[in-house]
Write a sequence for this structure.
């Protein structure tokens, strides 16, 4: 999430046509180091905003795979200023590992006057302080497939080879109509553009509900990359997309299947324990000043439903396959009480 896709506070949102920027820095961190960035425990730092759905994918993957000790975490303030994502949650407003105040500094160390703005998730090389990648589409796939030597014992296979074609097809539809679709609706500049995007969002959600009525997870009988990518949009739906982005044909909580599915995942270790509703709401309502000029953050919705029984286990499925749930959230990475239901 960056300047062109829901990042920096910008009064132009809702006044200029929305576009999703491709990641400019698409180097990959791989087991064989073919892009000159080999997988190495402790070498890299993952920078996220808990407000951002794209960054939240990496948070969930990192937890499920048990990479907390191998890949350290930096969490930015959910409200940026014009200098980009900032580390004002840390003492003295400086990331304690990278020593920088703004994520833009790591970008500038990699390439001065780079195009595309400053986005999260971002992976930074700690020794040099340079950005490695901001390729939000590839980061989680590589965590699942290239970082296997550092996975915890019992880590799930989030991108099983036999199911990759199906996962890829499902996530492409989810990306176009849901992940990206809510932004196209929210940042639309005219009625026709908004109606087309909003219609596509709910058409796809209804198709997904039909699929999930018969099976617990999107692809196969275990959690995969597909579930992670849908979850990070669904968990924000009623809190921000329904009102702030005008995706209001119905609430997630009004759809029996999707609401049950989302709660099932939220209550699965590795999902809900990464979600900070306070960060989510403050970011969208205070940063997108072109849509919400007052910056007022709504009190609702009631979040208590996220922890109610979902009964999805009746469909079968094994969340972690032959593996096990992740352990407790590491000290210092817990979501504050104000961000939880």
């Amino acid at each position: 999430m960056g300047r062109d896709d829901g990042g920096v506070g910008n009064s132009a949102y809702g006044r200029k046509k929305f576009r999703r920027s491709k990641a400019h820095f698409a180097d990959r961190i791989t087991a064989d180091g073919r892009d000159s960035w080999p997988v190495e425990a402790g070498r890299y730092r993952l920078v996220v905003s808990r407000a951002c759905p794209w960054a939240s994918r990496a948070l969930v993957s990192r937890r499920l795979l048990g990479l907390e000790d191998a890949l350290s975490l930096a969490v930015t303030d959910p409200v940026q200023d014009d200098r980009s994502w900032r580390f004002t949650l840390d003492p003295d407003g400086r990331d304690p590992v990278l020593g920088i105040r703004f994520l833009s500094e790591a970008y500038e160390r990699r390439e001065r006057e780079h195009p595309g703005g400053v986005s999260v998730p971002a992976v930074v090389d700690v020794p040099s302080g340079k950005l490695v990648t901001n390729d939000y589409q590839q980061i989680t796939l590589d965590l699942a497939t290239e970082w296997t030597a550092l996975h915890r014992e019992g880590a799930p296979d989030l991108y099983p080879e036999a199911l990759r074609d199906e996962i890829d097809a499902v996530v492409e539809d989810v990306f176009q109509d849901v992940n990206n679709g809510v932004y196209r609706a929210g940042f639309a500049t005219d009625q026709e553009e908004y109606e087309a995007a909003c219609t596509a969002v709910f058409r796809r959600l209804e198709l997904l509900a039909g699929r999930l009525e018969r099976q617990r997870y999107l692809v196969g009988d275990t959690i995969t990359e597909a579930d992670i990518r849908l979850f990070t949009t669904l968990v924000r739906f009623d809190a921000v997309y329904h009102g702030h982005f005008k995706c209001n044909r119905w609430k997630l909580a009004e759809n029996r299947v999707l609401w049950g599915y989302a709660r099932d995942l939220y209550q699965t270790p590795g999902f809900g324990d990464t979600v900070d509703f306070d960060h989510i709401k403050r970011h969208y309502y205070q940063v997108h000043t072109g849509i919400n000029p007052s910056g007022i953050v709504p009190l609702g919705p009631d979040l208590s439903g996220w922890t109610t029984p979902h009964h999805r286990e009746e469909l079968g499925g094994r969340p972690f396959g032959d593996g096990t749930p992740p352990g407790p959230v590491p000290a210092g990475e817990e979501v504050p009480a104000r961000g939880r239901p």
